[in-house]
UniProtKB/TrEMBL annotation, chain A:
Coiled-coil residue windows: none
TM region positions: 20-43, 89-113, 125-146, 158-175, 253-276
Protein name: ABC-type glycerol-3-phosphate transport system, permease component
One Pfam family per UniProt: BPD_transp_1
GO cellular component: plasma membrane
GO biological process, one term: transmembrane transport
Gene3D superfamilies reported for this sequence: MetI-like
Topological relation to the membrane, as annotated: Multi-pass membrane protein
TrEMBL record, chain B:
Alphabetical GO biological process terms: transmembrane transport
Record protein name field: Multiple sugar transport system permease protein
Protein keywords: Cell membrane, Membrane, Sugar transport, Transmembrane, Transmembrane helix, Transport
Residue ranges of the TM segments: 7-30, 50-78, 90-111, 142-165, 202-226, 250-271
UniProt subcellular location: Cell membrane
Amino acid sequence: MAFLFKKIRSYQKKKVNRSWYGTVMIFAVLGLFGSFMALPLVYTINNAFKPLDEIFLFPPRFFVRNPTINNFIDLFNLMANSWVPFSRYIFNTLFITIVGTAGHIVFAAAAAYPLAKHKFPGRNVIFTIVVLSLMFSPHVTAIPNYMTMSFLGWIDSYWAIIVPSFAYPLGLYLMKQFMEQIPDSLLEAARIDGASEYRIFWQLVMPIVKPAWLTLMILLFQQLWGTDGGYFIYSEELKTMNYAMGQIIQGGIARAGAAAAVALMLMSVPIIIFLFSQASIIQTMSSSGMKE
Amino acid sequence: MAPYFTLFFLFTILPVLISVIISFTYFNMLELPRWVGWHNYARLFLEDDVFLIALKNTVLFAAITGPLSYIACFLFAWLINEFSPKIRALLTLIFFAPSISGNIFFIWLIIFSGDTYGYANGFLMKIGIIYEPIQWLHDPKYVLAIVMLVQLWLSLGTSFLAFIAGLQTIDRTLYEAGAIDGIRNRYQELWYITLPSMKPQLMFGAVIQITMSFAVADVSMALAGFPSVQYAAHTIVTHLIDYGSIRFEMGYASAIATILFLIMMSTNLIVQKLLRKVGS
């Protein structure tokens, strides 16, 4: 408590227009909602290390008493006995995620560069369509997409998931907004030095927009990591880790321990990536605004 | 640039057009589509009671979780912005984590589980408010509210980050100038300086949150089941999934998709108009 008071007081001194009452309220509100946001996550972490008898304790207990890694051992046993080797699911997810994310970054950046830095007729129309398409929900396009995929013969292959993710509009939007901040004089200087547009793009623009890549990376990663193949993938050996995890979770009470371990594993990867790229993401997002 | 837009056209623009066309036909994926005019739309509004329930629930979601999540995104971004960078990064992580941890919302199944092992029941029974476990997810009275709660929990996503970023780019000297010009407290500061300075981010955030609040489906299906008890948590999107991937009435499903699309677009445009007025 004393620590908190000291914190509030030191904070109070620094700024103008700050009342005591307001500062205390901020701590209260953030504390309350922060725990609402964090509780389920903390719970997942705790549950993953609970021995079975603690998972089924009544009344339920929140924190783990005797942590154990049995759940993870259970999980690996389950994995070892699954019909398709578990490593296959991991490979599928990694393949879809890495190819989809990398492809999206290259495609979106290549499209964003002319939109941001070259003047050509129709530029504003194209960008307006991209902004409007931010308002589409994927569900609206699901049925025709299925038909397109079956026409292309991509049903039941990775490409049905990977290729549409290349054209994800939010990524293009953020990339274009970020690229607009690159000063024109820099590009001009490169042109005078005789660099080709191609070279300018790869050697000048791409390194500058690194924060934007990282942002697109986390956005795409989060989408593709969480995919379960949807309507497009039917073969067991092409299904993703998320799908396999879903099956384990549905196994019911007998697998409650393994399910808790699964939950922790699925959750931690995107969070860890975010942890390391947070600063770049915030930097990119500061240019995300829509002009009137 | 060309490759991107080929794909963009193929997977984003073309589907919307196809969807509108199919919505005027009867199409079951096996036979060729047959033109039926406005029949699908007439059937939606005049004959399909479940669609009307879905529509009502979707509007409820959009009207309650939409604005609440938007305000929450801004409020928390604004409060977090008061702290020093290290604490700020930590708080951002805590608030943002639910929205990137994928399908983790299924843990709410355990919290609201209908037996005594559920945390909500366990806690309420321990402190003596209830004596019998409540069937949270199988009682039409609670299920919609619970799905909304979880939806809110998940909603601090892209717009939340955009707001945090927007707040950090505001010129500090504006506040000092404001203090000299007679701004007395946080609230005046918020309305006269902060909000107008980050209008572009506010518009961007609105688009994201509106689109999200109309598209509730996964959470509802995971928590309330599919279909949910008495369709209590049925939304337009779950209705669409029902007709599109279970009954294979593609024409009808496309009509649902088209209506959803029109509702989303018009809400977005109206909200954009309103937001332009902020701070003026």
